Structures are given as structure tokens and as C-alpha cells.
Amino acid sequence: MLLNIGSTDAELRDDLIYTTLSHWIPGESLTVDELQQLLPVILDDQHLQFKSGETATDSVFTRSFSLLVLPLLFTRHRQSPFLTSRQIHQIKDKVLDSILAERDYRGYDEDKGWAHAIAHGADVLDELAQCPELDYDDLVNILDVVQAKVTITERIYSDGEDERLVRPIISVLNRQLLSQAYVEQWIQGFGEAEKSPDFLPAFRQRYNIKNFLKSLYFRVKYYKTDAGLCPVIENTLYKVETVYYASR
Q: Which of 30, 65, 124, 172 sits at a 20 to 30 Å CA gap from 147?
């Protein structure tokens, strides 16, 4: 299954391989020894790092669905811990590198199904943010990676990526390791993102920032998570609008 996890056949990749793993791993059909053998394969340069940086090629399916296996491992770990602190930090380092290097921002491909590398990466970040083994600096790293992927200029996210990228932020907030002042500064950073001088890339970036901040606003408000952040998000949204409209 791992050899074919990046198949361009959506039925094989999604409905058979991933679905089977989603039953086997949390359902304890695989032993801890087998999971320990599976982890380094998922993280290697033929899976998570496969042809990293490529765009508009089929390699994205291997990277993306390798990412999607990792939340299954964390689900199993929460049921019965088997990952060491060192392994969790190794996963964190590999995942952050993979997401930062990802340049294929496709969501759903009409011919080959879900690519969704950024959404799947966000799912792993959400799991990592909940790990008590990760400390202040690790959570800061997660925030930085999310901001880097929200402020892209190559494409407008159109397949729910904004909502998925908000999830790890809520998990970071729930850890209560970062001060509100730091989080406020991070939010304000979206209004200070480097702007492209060209209209279309700037428009895409603005659209992505707006969608993310709106999703974050309502998630924070709904779950009453650090409700004091809502005015900061509002002000940042206004700043993003003012900057872009003033430049036209």
C-alpha cells in the first residue's frame, strides 16, 4: 500500500489504501513494531519528501497522502502511547520542512481526485500542536509555517484550506503556552505581509489572508478561545483591505 500511496487512481489511493490504513492503524490491526517500521518509510524521500518542490506533477499525491497517514499514527498514540519524544520532534521537523517546501497548491483535481497537500499538512500540524512533548518554540514554528502558507501568491485556496489551517492555530491557543501579546503580534503580521507589486499575485494573497482571518475569527468566537483576539483580527482585516484598495 505504501508503494502505491501516491497513485493517480483516486479510488485506489483514497477509498482503498487510505481507508484501509484508517481502520488498521487506530483499530490496532497493526502492532507497535509494525508501526515503528512504517514511520520511517512515511518520512523518507520516497514518500513525505518525494520530489519536494515540484508543481503540477503527480508527485504531490505521494507527499500529500503520506502526510495524511501521520494523524492516524497520532490517533493510535493517544490511545496507547508508542512514539518517543524524539520521534515526535523528528516528525515535527520533517513535516514543517515538507509543508514549507510544498509548491503544489491544488485542492481537488477533476481527473485524479484530491491532492490537498496543504490541507493534509494542516491536519498534521493540528495533531502536533496538541502533543505535550512540543514546547513554546515548537508552537511558534507551527504558527510561522501556517502564516507562510496563508500568504502565498501563486494560487487562491478554494477547497477549504483556510478552515483546515485554522485548526492547528486553535490547538496552539489551547496549549496556553504563548502569551496573548505574542499571538496578537502574529495575527497583525498578516497585515504586514510583503506584497507583490503585481496585481494578480497581490490579489491572490489578499484573498487568502482575508479567508483565513475570517475563518479564524469565527472559530475563536464560536469556541470562546481567547475571545480578546477578535478585535485584533478585525483590525488586521481592515488593514489588509486598506492596503490593497489604496494601491489600486
A: 65
